[in-house]
Amino acid sequence: MRAAGRPLRAEVLGRLAAADPGLLRFTAGLRTVTSIALTLAVLATLRFDVSHLVAGAITAMVATFAIREKGRPEQAVTLALGLPVALASMSLGALLNSRVVMGDLFFVALIFCAVYSRRFGDRGTALGLVGFQIYFASLFVHATVSALPGLYLTITVAFGCAAVARFVLVRETAAGILDRLRRAFRARFAQLVAAQAELLDAGPDELDKAVEEVRVRTARLHETALLIQGRLVDGTSDEAVARLVQRRIADAEIAAERLGLLLLTARSAERADTLTLHLPGAPLPSAAVEPVRDEAMERLRLDLEALRLLVLRPAGPEKGTALARLRNRLLGYREEEQLPPAPPAVQDVFRGIGEAARAVLGLRIALDGPQDESDDTPATSRSREELDAEDASIEGVEEGDREAEEATGLRRPTTRAAVQVAVGSSLAIVGGEFLSAQRWYWAVLTCWIVFINTASTGEILVKGYRRLLGTVLGVVAGIVLAGLVGHHTWTAFGLVLVFIFAMFYSAPISYTLMSFFVTAMLGLLYTLLNTYSLDVLVLRVAETALGAVCGVIAAAVVLPVHTDRRTDELLAETLDRLADVTRASADQLSGAPPVDLVEKARDLDQALADLAAAVQPLTHPITPLRSRRDTARYVVALLETCAYHARSLAATAELLPTHPSIAADPRLRGAGRRIVHNIEAISAQVAGGQPVPGIETGPSIAAMLEPGTLRAPRYGRVTDRVLRHLQRLDEAVVGLARPLGVPVRPRAAA
Fold first, then answer.
1. What is the pTM of this model?
2. How far is CA 610 from CA 347, 573, 614, in A?
3. Which residues pair with 695 in a beta bridge?
4. 697 beta partners
5. Residues near 600 by Cβ (< 8 Å), separated by ≥ 6?
6. Beta bridge partner(s), residue 215
7. Each residue of 118-141: pLDDT tens digit?
8. DSSP class of residue 595?
9. The pLDDT of residue 715
10. d(C-alpha 379, C-alpha 330), whole Å
11. 91/151 Cα distance (integer angstroms)
């Protein structure tokens, strides 16, 4: 029974790790709930009344979620600094409670300072949040000067409980987070392989759904790789280890995505590229083809399952195990060993499985240390030797330094946002007072929140819409829950804890869902304070709508950053990063000294992720401009195609100094220069808004292949791969020029 339960437990933990990489959302929710529950327990023991319990719960929540530093010492310092800020904010809230005009002016000034403090990093952001939210709490519980001693003790208890929850009860270290992210990467890798196996078996009616599942799981694997990238420096012992893990994660990600493309090609009569995987609604090649059921395909299904097991298998002795024999067989495909008789496209899939197995082996060595080599075949030994040679070459790679030019004055994003939110909050205060002299601050809170983590008018509009929708749904839930709970204090607090956990767990997934849980929780808090009524909840909706409108007006009128301008800036940045990766990869493949290509590729990935987030207002379903929406989706899809091929080129170029099977080819520099010139021409037009002469087209890059090269076992296969990636990148860049209005002209004859 015990043995039978282990696979089930491992499966459940694997699914949880894949759904919440690093358990970041789960840990954030659990830590916040623990902090609030502990605060309520201490305050209840001290026999504080309900208003103090509510103030303590709000303070504990703020003292927990506001702190974002990764290091524990930095977190402790910020938490210690937050206590006097919270006490001062509560004091001013109580003192200005009866002075309406002065109180409103101070609130606007506080909001400006809280947003402006974001320029000072995580600590400045945290202290600004604490100051704003505690002042808001003073308005919510109607703090008075006579109640300050009790509120001081309440705040101190809440901060103390937040420290206990963070550093004792729900401890979290950078190394622990990174370890969980590694497990999440493995789990998502295994899920992607499972989806690829389903793609192999999908019939004509199921192919669309199967490809969509591969697309989604590929994106999730990429998301986890980016999360790991952000935690490597703090979570590893030294820079060399961080660079090694970074490279192995990149290798595994590229091998997994390439395997999916090879499988899709094997299912069709024509070559697939990443546009099919990234662009929703793109036509599938030969979609009516039925899955093949011959011996080679059956073996392919078994090998995909073997690859999935290799990914998931925990570290341990391998000697004599069936899995070790499977690993050796899969790695043998890289050496053309035991390839079954099959069409070339299917044999390419077997080779892709071999490359993926090699990436998994490298990942295991990097994450788990040296492995048992007693059962290695010659093919496995060669793979290990290649990995060792790559590891030894990491320290010799140069890192490029690139400092971004920082804007000043009102051009600085934090200064501009502070001015905008101050103006929007002033409008919200005036309008909120007309709606309710008692609860006008809900409009201010909404105006404040819609500005957090937004950078353009379109983003603020979409965020305001989502918050309003979540608030309306939350009001309905609040009405139902208030009627069910009545005046059962601890039942209400229990539900509040459940909603707070759900709020933090759902926040990165759906802003609408998070707003729903916030509003439902507030309905319960109103019930506890004996201020609940249907009118109050309806007023909450009105104040939310007012705050969202004021935020949009301020963003559109005061120092506006239009969505088009924001997306153009990020598009130019993405194109610049793409040009950097392409130029460095082509140079290194042509014989130039090695540079840190993985880091450049990750810069490209991050720039593309920022662009994809910024274009959401343009691609949102409520967007009335359908043509612009389709163009934005198409451009992002083409950029994802370019990024995949650039990452693959970078990964191959990184192998050049250590692999005898890959040789520098000076011809690649010319092909790379043409592509880089075209990317820079598009970037110049996007950034400057001025037309450029156009981009160049020329002979197919794949024509550089000499007759017979495709059939050469190892060197030719790598050369073919490099040239195919360059060809696809060239085609995607030319395709990118057309929707962006850049003319395309044939290359002049030499």
1. 0.80
2. 38, 10, 6
3. 744
4. 746
5. 400, 577, 580, 581, 584, 650
6. none
7. 888 889 999 999 999 999 889 888
8. B
9. 38
10. 9
11. 9
